[in-house]
Amino acid sequence: xxxxxxxxxxxxxxxxxxxxxxxxxxxxxxxxxxxxxxxxxxxxxxxxxxxxxxxxxxxxxxxxxxxxxxxxxxxxxxxxxxxxxxxxxxxxxxxxxxxxxxxxxxxxxxxxxxxxxxxxxxxxxxxxxxxxxxxxxxxxxxxxxxxxxxxxxxxxxxxxxxxxxxxxxxxxxxxxxxxxxxxxxxxxxxxxxxxxxxxxxxxxxxxxxxxxxxxxxxxxxxxxxxxxxxxxxxxxxxxxxxxxxxxxxxxxxxx
Length: 255
Hints:
255 residues, 0% strand, mainly alpha, disordered N terminus
């Protein structure tokens, strides 16, 4: 019986064409693997870029506005409430009802309502943040042309802004309108202007509450003891809270 050795097609040189075909297929597999790897790398980098853009878009004006709704300086909030309560009770006792102790309860109730509205307005304006001692610098960064960085976005990101996004930004700009350049102030001046804006919002809320309760009660505004204090509360309160916040800013140490 005759045996044949060394006739393996892959080890001998009897089938060189077969060896070339095998090498060609091996090279094509390697190239295909490299192309697939590069494609996966590009897709991964594109996905990372989308995540980065999504994280940047998360810092939208609605979330920036929500970030202001916080109480960081609780001691300052406590002093504000004490001043507002003292304001209402002093106006009732010394001016409106003339040394009458019977109206102290109603004046305390009025002061509590005004303090509550002050807290609501302060949360909206960010009056209880640590940065309030400098008037809360603008949260929307502005470029040299005076346009917000959000408006200066180009391309698809700017075209996909939602209606809530645009409305919140416009609301913030209207709320912080600066006719005389006072928003550029920092320190006591900025803190005083922040308190002024906050108390204006508080006064508007108080008037709305008075109108609402008068409509529900079918009576005139000012018929009850608390509402009789509103005119002087608004006038004196604007001056008192602005001066108080400016004084607090001037004596507060900055780290």
